[in-house]
Amino acid sequence: MKTKKRGGRRLKKDWRRKIDVTDVDTYLEGKRLQERIGDSFSQKKDEELFHIDTSGKKQKSKKKSLNAPLKCLSILQSTSAIPPLAKRSVKKYKKNNKKDDDFDKNIKPLKKKGGIVKKKEAKELNKILKAKVKTLELKENSTKDLFDKDLWTSYREPGQRKDKLIKNVIKWLPSEVLNHNAKILPKLSNKKMSHPSQTTCKAEDMKCPHPGLSYNPTIEDHVSLLANIAEKETELIKHEAHMNRVTRNLFKQVSKEKNEQMIIEELTEGLPGFTDDTVKEVNEDTSEFKAINPPTTRDNQKTIKKRKIQRRLRNEERQRMNAKIEKKKVSDLYRLRYIREELDELENTTNKKKLKRLQKRQLNNISTRRLGTNKFTESSDTFALPKDLKGTLRETEPQGNIFKDCFESLQKRNILSVGKKQLKIHKKKVQAFMHPAFKVTPDMLTKYSV
């Protein structure tokens, strides 16, 4: 059994040290909590804890009314505290309610066959005539159409739908204003962002396989499949032959020995000791000066007879040339019908070229665009020879790959970029460094061959 500790009770400090005061602390903590939170729920009434909600659903916040004034016009409004000046009081004159003012003196009263028209009938007729006269005057004076609507006061008329509003506004609002006020009128701006890499071409998703690829095809389908593949192969062979003809066959094929000999000759040209024996030696008398056209002497001088002969020959040649030109002019006149045929041929060729260009443009819209560095190339069609065709599914060998076809269709429609096969994994070489504070022993150096 534990013995109670006894202490002095003379001073207050001794009392606090030895006496247990936990019940007092718990009571005080409960009071403080009650002050903070409030009374307990058991003491409160139901009316204080609960209330009946009779307000109903909250009304949705209305959008900005279109009739509200524009923010850009707020600068024009006055912000001064001084009230505006009062309008001048205009003196109003009372109208003379005379019976004679209803009539227009210029308009004469109508007459019936039986006698004069009565006053009541004349008043009505007079009003109709006045209205007609006013409309005629307006037509004569007005050269332009009348615009009664004020576009700045309100966007739409009362009872007008939003679709009609948009059509009416777009007629006179420019594109800059529409994009600026897109927050207030979001449906007016039909602007859409597009990225060149995201634009897919108009190529088909997945074509149905040829009926000749089935494990048990008909003879006609199998023959048509083989004919299509043969056409593609012939086109490839023709293209390769054309490229060889244009590149390799243009240059002469020289053996290696002859090529080396030609290179040596080019490099050693003009050097002493490498001259050929076939070259003729130059004459020793090269120091003397010799003119290209030596001077004439009396012995070499042309006679008058020679000069006359030269002049006559020159004139005859000139006459011959003129006769040829005249003859060509006559032949060109007879050649007009052939010229027309040539022009028609030129027109046909130009039209054919135009059609080819249009077809190319249409194909460019359908064909794939290069997203990456590599170009898209369609894989060759799978086929089976008549020997390999079997009657049952068990004996047939699997051909093609559905997953590969789907992957190629994504590349064809510009959804994925074309890549290359990575045969090797190119890892970066890690360069090792030794810390200068690290103690190196000769055994370590021999172990790691440093």
UniProtKB/TrEMBL annotation:
Localization of this protein: Nucleus, Nucleolus; Nucleus, Nucleoplasm
GO molecular-function terms, A-Z: 5S rRNA binding
Coiled-coil residue spans: 306-356
GO cellular component: nucleolus; nucleoplasm
Keyword tags: Coiled coil, Nucleus, Ribosome biogenesis
Pfam families cross-referenced by the UniProt entry: Nop53
Superkingdom field: Eukaryota
InterPro entries the record matches: Nop53/GLTSCR2
GO biological process, one term: rRNA processing
The keyword Plastid appears for this protein: no
Functional note: May play a role in ribosome biogenesis.
Similarity section: Belongs to the NOP53 family.
PANTHER family to which the protein is assigned, alphabetical: GLIOMA SUPPRESSOR CANDIDATE REGION GENE 2, RIBOSOME BIOGENESIS PROTEIN NOP53
Record's protein name: Ribosome biogenesis protein NOP53
